[in-house]
Amino acid sequence: MPPWFADPQYGRFANDPSLSPREIETVTRWADANAPAGNLGEAPPAPLWTKGWNIPLPDEIVRMPRPVALPAHGDVEYTYEIVPTNFAEDKWVRMSEIRPRLRQNVHHAVVYVRPPGSNWLRHAPVGAPFTASTLENEQDRHDTEFTTNDILLVYAPGSSPDRWPEGMAKFIPRGSDLVFQMHYVTRGGAAADQTSIGLVFAKQPPTRRVLSLQLTNSRFVIPPGVDDYRVEVHGTMPNDALLLSFFPHMHLRGKRFEYDVINSDGRAETLLRVNYDFYWQLSYRLAMPRFLAAGTELQAVAWYDNSRKNPHNPDPESAVRWGDQTYDEMMVGFFDIAVPAGLDKEHYFIRQSQAEEPNSQTAR
């Protein structure tokens, strides 16, 4: 049974696997009685598992065309591979799952959607792995550091697939590419990875489109030896949305993470607080989506343990800054929202004037 790190004082979550005190008592009594079998005639049918997947059998599997060769030792620069989907029609993705070939070598993976005509990584090779340092075009090198393109799915140790409620899905325009961003680590032996993503499409066009957004603070310095260092970031919602879920991301010094709504009186209402574990990076899906009006202020707060008390700390004697490698740190509060199906990410971030109806501007 996977762990669960959310503080029960804040929020209710659809994917909370925790047992109630009554359930724990029942299991304890059953174990103390030497685990007797019940009435087999009343047993539910055995679950049916899809071989190799934690989602139903994918309608489409998109795989990196070429394996990425990994060295035995040393740091590995973020590696990208652009994969054409060749979709002849628009696709709405209800479920998705990233499956690395070598899980032990994957620190994280992000799959982005690059629609036709996008200038992001415009001159980068297609169908072959590359890194920022191998790109000749200056703009392409800059593009590896930042993008506004849609995130299809994020994978990290312990994370689970996306499964959106009925009537909600992520969008892949026809003719799009999927861009795999891979952060690899070495394990003492040469290896090769070829990651895939499985997609389950919605049977009917949804009424709402899911967007993955993030609150990020990359300008911090964690002093050596400090065991509870606080970093925060704020942002406001440009338009109305339904808040669906959270996915906090830090590295080995991560200790706690919190999401808040800042009310008009300045009071913080905590939506989620978790004890962070780098090896179990979980999503937290609200049991009931929460409406966020345009202008709502969100806050994410992270705490770090850079002391010797942290058994995972690579170097408690050093100050720590933002960086790509595991021995560096990150502070990213991913969260998922649902907006009208006709509204894309670019237009969602156009703030409407008060004379206009919220979300009145839709994508072309």
Strand and helix map with partners:
Blueprint: H1 21-32, E1 60-63, E2 68-70, E3 79-84, E4 91-99, E5 106-114, H2 138-143, E6 151-155, E7 162-163, E8 168-172, E9 177-184, E10 191-193, E11 196-201, E12 208-216, E13 221-222, E14 229-236, E15 241-249, E16 254-262, E17 268-275, E18 284-292, E19 297-304, E20 320-321, E21 332-340, H3 345-348
Parallel strand pairs: 8-12
Antiparallel strand pairs: 1-11, 2-10, 3-9, 4-7, 4-8, 4-11, 5-6, 5-9, 12-21, 13-20, 14-19, 15-18, 15-21, 16-17, 16-19
Helix content range? under 10%
Uncertain spans: 354-364
Helix/strand-derived class? mainly beta
Give the beta-strand count: 21
User: What profile does the largest beta sheet have?
Assistant: 9 strands, mixed
Number of helices: 3
Globular, elongated, flat, extended or rod-shaped: what is the shape?
globular
- Percent of sequence in beta strands: 35-45%
As a whole number of angstroms, the C-alpha radius of gyration is 22 Å
- Give the N-to-C terminal Cα separation: 45 Å
Order of helices and strands: HEEEEEHEEEEEEEEEEEEEEEEH
Overall pLDDT: 93
